[in-house]
Each structure stands twice: as C-alpha cells, then as structure tokens.
Amino acid sequence: MSLFDKNEKLDVFYNLIKDEQFREYNNNIKAGVDLGTANIVFSVVDEFDNPVAGASYSASVVKDGLVVDYIGAIEIVRNLKSKVEKILGREIKYASTAIPPGTLNGNVKAIANVLEAADIEVVSIVDEPTAAAAVLGITDGAVVDVGGGTTGVSILKDGKVLYTADEPTGGTHMSLVIAGNYNISFEEAEKIKKDPNREKDNFLLVKPVIEKMAHIVKRHLEGYDVKKIYVVGGACSFSEFENVFKKVIGIETIKPSRPLLVTPLGIAVSCIK
Predict the structure, then answer these.
(1) Which end of the chain is more exposed for a tag (fewer CB within 10 A), N or C?
(2) In the chain, pLDDT over 70 holds for what percent of residues?
(3) Bridge partners of residue 39, in order along the sequence
(4) DSSP 8-state code for residue 60
C-alpha cells in the first residue's frame, strides 16, 4: 500500500535526490528516465509506487522532444544510472521513459535508443502528461505539463485519455523574455529565472508568457467537460502560476508540491514489465 499522499511522495522524492539516499523497501522496484529539456531525472519507486531513490542532472541535450546531443544524452543517463545503482547497492536493468504528446515516431525511437545505449531495457514509453496523471492519481480532468520547450495537455475521463496535444511554449520562452528585458545571455537569464529571491520581479516579466500558455490550453479544452486542471513541470514553479491559469481559463487549477518532479516520478510509476 502507498505510504504517502501525493505531495508527501514528491517531497520525499525531492529529499532522496538532494541527500543522495534511498528509502528502505522490501519488494521489487520500478525505474523511469525523464529526458527533459532542462533536466534529466532518474527515478526509482517500489511496487506500491512509493519513491525509493533518484538522481537529477541539468542538461540541454533534448529540445522539444528531440534528442539534439545523442552522445551527451547517453553519457548523462549512464552516469545517473550508475549513481542510483551505487545508492541502492543493486543493478537496474530496465526502465520506462516518456515523450511529449504528438512526438514523431523517429524521435520516440531516438529517445528509446538513448536508454538502450546506456544499458537499460526500455519496457514502456508514455506521454508526459499521462505519466504525471499516474503519480497524482488523476482519473478525470486535464493535466498540463509545462516543460522547458513545450507544454503538453492530456484530458482524462474515467481513467482513460481522451485527448492529448503539445505546443511549443515553455520555460525556454520565459528565459528568452528575461534575457531580452535585461539584455543578457540566455544562460544568465536561466539563472535569474531560478533565483527565489527574484521571483516577484521574474513573475511580472513572464506573466504574459503564462497567459499565452493558458489561452493555448483553453483552446485545447474546448468541447470537453473539464472540472479541474493540474499543472506540473518545472516551468510552472512560480507561486502565482496556477492563479493565472484559473483567471484566464475559468477552471480550478491545482499545482502539486515539487511540480518539476511529478512527471519523472510518474514515469517510474508507469514502468510495468
């Protein structure tokens, strides 16, 4: 049985990554690899979907679901795998991974090839919002995964996915706005965006980008009876993010704890061999 509620799971997982430790378990484990635009995360859960261990690495080897640095991606995944195996004291042979909705077949194969080249058997590939829904236990509503390069939308009814979509807007666009405002490099803007001491000023700058995201999501929800929206992904970490969505779309919007880690943990939860 699950030991934690949704937010507790995410907090526990965050601390396991931060402290480079594992949680005791007495059963089989499942693993997931999230090849994100800004971060690559290796996740491990037990058979009851409770977090066991994990590791994360900031990288830019994937862009909009496309692997742009194949060798770099393999090396990072291999290193994360080795790190988690050292923490657990056991080998990890297989895992799941995820893709943005609508990813072309060739890109899906490339992402799978990265894991296989890192000596990981790929047992399943899910779309990112559906992975997020798995860890949040969502059966009805819309999951919006705001990543670095894209925003994915998944609409669920009675546990079934009715509709998925992906749009090319995300955290990268926020950083570009910040870079343009201060006339600085993209890399400098990324650091400023993640500075908690500058969140208020940053939010004022990127609010138009968030409003654009909300209008895009609103368009995708037309014709569906959606009562709640769940936002996940690192780019929705701003404290007022969900309030902008609620105001624009007019639907209750919920943001879980540690939104950056929802999809990575959900990928491991979805790993069924």
Answers:
(1) N
(2) 96
(3) 58
(4) -
